[in-house]
């Protein structure tokens, strides 16, 4: 499942993934609202979400990552031009298991998504080391408070 408000990006993602053969794209959504409806209907294993679209963003990631019901939740991956460490950290805390900067993944997208589907966490943004440091520092501070 892929969600982006740009139809050209949606089509490109679909074409790249389906050409790879390891993926079946069960739906394309142009908004976060459409993404939730399609996710409920198709119960995909993996959801690729643009952060800048109506009904999307971090709240859209959180909504997909915490869908109620007797189902296996999909692995949620953010695909965004927004790479500020604060946005990446917030998105990961909302339930994303991957964060990919638009324009950096290109033809390697299927390999990265296959790693995520297999259980890896991938943070492919220029600020990844800052994001990881922030997450570790925050986690250490939370553990010390307990």
TrEMBL record:
Keyword terms, alphabetized: DNA-binding, Phosphoprotein, Transcription, Transcription regulation, Two-component regulatory system
InterPro entries annotated for this entry? CheY-like_superfamily, NreC/VraR/RcsB-like_REC, Sig_transdc_resp-reg_receiver, WalR-like
- SMART domains (alphabetical): REC
Q: Which residues carry this modification: 4-aspartylphosphate?
A: 50
Entry annotated with the keyword Metal-binding: no
Question: Can you give the residue ranges of the Response regulatory domain?
Answer: 1-117
Tell me where on the tree of life, at the top rank, the source sits: Bacteria
Entry protein name: Response regulatory domain-containing protein
According to its UniProt entry, this protein's organism is Nocardioides aquiterrae
């Amino acid at each position: 499942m892929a969600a982006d408000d740009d139809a050209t990006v949606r089509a490109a993602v679909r074409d790249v993934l389906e050409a790879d053969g390891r993926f079946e794209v069960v739906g394309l959504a142009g908004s976060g609202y459409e993404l939730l409806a399609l996710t409920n209907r198709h119960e995909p294993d993996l959801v690729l979400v643009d952060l800048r679209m109506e009904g999307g963003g971090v709240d859209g990631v959180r909504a997909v990552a915490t869908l109620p019901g007797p189902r296996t939740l999909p692995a949620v991956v953010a695909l965004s031009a927004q790479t500020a460490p604060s946005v990446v950290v917030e998105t990961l805390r909302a339930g994303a298991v991957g964060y990919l900067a638009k324009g950096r993944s290109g033809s390697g997208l299927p390999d990265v998504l296959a790693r995520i589907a297999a259980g890896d966490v991938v943070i492919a943004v220029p600020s990844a080391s800052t994001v990881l440091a922030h997450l570790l520092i925050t986690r250490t501070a939370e553990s010390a408070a307990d």
